[in-house]
Amino acid sequence: MEKKKIYIIGGCRGCGATFVAAGLAFAMGRRPEGEKKGIAYLEGVSHDDGPGGSGHSLPYYELSLDRHISAGRFSDMFAVKREGKDPSNRLNLYGNVNWAVRTDMSPAGVFLSPEDVAGRFVLWDSPGASGAAYEPDLVIFVFDVLPSRVVASVPQKEICRKRFGNRMLWVMNRVMDKPYEKAARQAERYLGIRADYCIENEPFENILSSELCLQPFHKVNGLQAGNTGNMGPANMDIFDSMAEHILGLY
Predict the structure, then answer these.
(1) How far is CA 200 from CA 37, 148, 197, 234, 245, in A?
(2) 118, 36 contact by CB (below 8 A)
(3) For the chain, what is the largest distance between any 2 Cα atoms, rounded to a whole number of angstroms?
């Protein structure tokens, strides 16, 4: 069955592309049709810690996958590819998602493509230049309401709009209530776009709590959404809506 390649691209560094990619992956994995079709998260180039380092924290640790996928079961697909083997035969299954992620021991300068990863729906987080070799079925562009990041997102927005046209969804991250709600309108106006989905700002202490408790922030683990250490219910609903829409497209 043909793979569906979904790029998640941030307008600039720190916009929250990985936050959105992980949230969407878990949401798609929660849906019966997602579990049936097969969901994969593919870590992109911006996290590679090659010469000079990217300085980006790794989803493997952000999502506490090191605690939920035992060392004996976890497969470093980047190392597998470097050895000349086929990583698409490997699975790191958690939350009904196949996680193709790096660890601090993964080889630098090795990148995977959607064809290297098992799963019909491949969410490619920040594909970078490697993404130019493929045609995505859908591109999710993530931008932040912080004015400095809005300005920094203009070049990437123009590139994506020109290349991908109507294959895009626009996601605005860190939207806040009064008195800061005007920042969202200003961001849309400056970029000349209308957000399809708006992700509310999540309290830092909740994200910190999730990492201290070794639980993925995006995945409700026997608790109600919005409890300390869990994503808020509004954002949980937004990700579920996004997952339903995307799975319904194909």
Answers:
(1) 29, 18, 10, 8, 19
(2) no
(3) 55
**Alpha-helical regions (H) of the chain:** 17-30, 32-37, 59-62, 65-68, 77-82, 147-164, 182-191, 204-212, 233-249
Q: In terms of Cα–Cα distance, which of 43, 38, 119, 111 is closest to 80?
A: 111
Q: Is the peptide bond before 179 cis (omega within 30 degrees of 0)?
A: yes
Domain of residue 137, residue span: 4-249
Nearest-angstrom CA–CA distance, 51 and 49: 7
Does residue 25 register a pLDDT over 70?
A: yes
Q: What is the mean pLDDT of the chain?
A: 91
- Written as six digits, the tokens of 244 are 């339903």
Half-sphere exposure of 101 (CA within 13 A, CB side): 26
d(CA 250, CA 235): 24
Residue type, 71: A
Query: What is the C-alpha separation between 88 and 181, in angstroms, rounded?
Result: 44
Number of domains in the chain: 1
Structural tokens at position 138: 């859908």
| DSSP-derived 3-state class of residue 200 | strand
Residues 227-249 have pLDDT tens digits of: 556 788 899 999 999 999 999 99
User: Which string of b and e fits 186-209 if b means at least 16 CB within 10 Å?
Assistant: ebbeebebebebbbbbbeeebeeb
Whole-prediction pTM: 0.93
CATH number at residue 202: 3.40.50.300
